[in-house]
Amino acid sequence: MSSSATAIPAETPLLSASRLISQALSLLRDSPDSAPSQDAISQLQLSLDVLTKLDPYIESHSAAPPAAFEGLAQATVSEDWAARHREGKTAFPLGAQFSAGAYEGMFVAQVAKSIRAKRVLEVGMFTGTTTLCIADQLPAGGKVIALEIDAYLKDFLKPHAEKAGVSEKIEVMTGKAKDSIETILKEVQSGKAEPFDLIFIDADKEGYQGYFDQIINGGLLAKSGTLLCDNTLYKGSPFLEEGSPQIEKLLAKVPGISVNNAVALRKFNDNVLQDKRVLSTILPIRDGVTWINWA
């Protein structure tokens, strides 16, 4: 099972839809004008049951994360992220929902294991839940290099990585991701380092296209490598037509959606699909994961 005792908030298209259905049910039940259709309520309730039980079922029937994951998940959920941002320890306001969680962390780790990855690049780490899962599945001598803007988060992960016994497999580079990628590019292009077998992007959404261009144009991804990009279904927004009543209602009624992120990810998805250098498939895993290989 990939689920842990600590539930990390998930933000997925299914959750967006379930919130909307829940609101519709409330409106039908509270309607003062006419008796609502019991069949309609029954059907909506069934839809809500299916939507809300899918993610928990998937998590409970997928591979479990390493034992040290639970402590990291607890620390992620219990941390006062608003206070850390006020103190200047994080560059942006953060929250536990920024974590990919056990299920997705283990999915990325299983990809790493299945392709026999030894060098992994993670663009955007947050508290390192995915980092920990990946490191646990890497062979001896394997390394995951995680890029994170906040030094505080490097320190946040450290005791949990030590407890898991994977500290030697994790290197955290702090600062702006684009600058860290440029540093790594120079090492790879000079022959001092090898390209990466697996790259996972889960950082600022408006930066995805730039990171993709750096990686693909610079040859950071090995020819047999895999690039995974998170949040490419971003709460259901990319597949609703831009400017349509549906997208406007989604933005208004589902909390936490950034218009800029929605627009950036829609454009990113379009650009990746049209890029003849790569093959891509969007998987409906949590908030959407795009699997990319060289064509």
Question: What is the C-alpha radius of gyration, as a whole number of Å?
Answer: 20 Å
Largest sheet: 7 strands, mixed
Task: List the uncertain runs.
Answer: none
Task: Provide the helix percentage.
Answer: 40-55%
Beta-strand fraction estimate: 5-15%
Question: What does the overall shape look like?
Answer: globular
Describe the secondary structure blueprint for this structure.
Layout: H1 13-29, H2 38-60, H3 69-78, H4 81-86, H5 101-114, E1 119-123, H6 129-137, E2 143-148, H7 151-164, E3 170-174, H8 177-189, E4 196-201, H9 208-218, E5 221-230, H10 245-253, H11 259-274, E6 278-283, E7 289-294
Helix pairs in contact: 1-2, 5-6, 8-9
Task: Quickly describe the structure.
The chain has 295 residues and is an alpha/beta fold. The protein is built from eleven helices and seven strands. It is globular, with a radius of gyration of 20 Å.
Overall description:
A seven-stranded mixed β-sheet has the order 3-2-1-4-5-7-6, sandwiched between helices. Strand 6 and strand 7 (289-294) form a beta hairpin. The mean pLDDT is 91. It has two domains: 13-60; 69-294, Vaccinia Virus protein VP39 (Rossmann fold), CATH 3.40.50.150. With 295 residues, the chain is α/β, with parallel strands linked by helices. It has eleven helices and seven strands. Helix 1 runs antiparallel to helix 2 (38-60), helix 5 (101-114) runs parallel beside helix 6 (129-137) and helix 8 (177-189) runs parallel beside helix 9 (208-218). 48% of the residues lie in helices and 15% in strands. The longest helix has 23 residues, at 38-60. This is S-adenosyl-L-methionine-dependent methyltransferase. Belongs to the class I-like SAM-binding methyltransferase superfamily. Cation-dependent O-methyltransferase family. One of its GO terms (molecular function) is O-methyltransferase activity. Keywords: Methyltransferase, S-adenosyl-L-methionine, Transferase. InterPro entries: Cation-dep_OMT (IPR050362), SAM-dependent_MTases_sf (IPR029063), SAM_O-MeTrfase (IPR002935).
